[in-house]
Amino acid sequence: MLQIFLPFDEPPHTERPDLSTLTSLNPLAGHCAAIYVGNIFHLFSEENQLHLARALAGLLSPLPGSVIFGIHGANPQKGVFRTGCNGRAVDVFCHSPESWAAAWNGEVFAKGKVKVDATGEWVDKEGLKFWQLRWSVVRL
What domains can be seen in the chain, in order of their start residue? Predict the structure, then answer.
């Protein structure tokens, strides 16, 4: 499990751990310069997406330029949308680029501590069409 740490304003007072010894991500709190998160967020409710974002924010280094970035399913308009998966209907919570940016810059991090870029586009992969959000959250 990943413990929630408040985003660091100063570098942590712990030594960066030896990655080969880790059995949890918790010792990395405040030490990660770059975190990639691909195709995960859209699997969760709005509340759980915010929880995951906060957990990742606690891992990020406070140094300017540290970044969390990724892609995931989204929609031009924020909300719950019904989609199909393996022949059955599934409700999926999707952020819009604007709601995604507002969540990171104001809810996850204090407003003005990060720069968020989020853009979406329709993607067609082997006949499956969906809207994909490409995004980055950079510490200032």
Answer: 35-139 (3.40.50.150)
Residue 93 CA to residue 72 CA, distance in Å, equals 11
Tell me the whole-structure pTM to 2 decimals.
0.90
CA dist., res. 128 & res. 59, Å (int): 34
d(CA 4, CA 56): 8
Residue 100's SS3 state is helix
Per-residue pLDDT of the chain (140 residues; tens, 9 = 90+): 789 999 999 999 999 999 999 999 999 999 999 999 999 999 999 999 999 999 999 999 999 999 999 999 888 999 998 776 677 888 889 999 999 999 999 999 999 999 999 999 998 888 778 889 999 999 99
Q: Residue 80 pairs with which residues in a beta bridge?
A: 93
* 117, amino acid identity: D
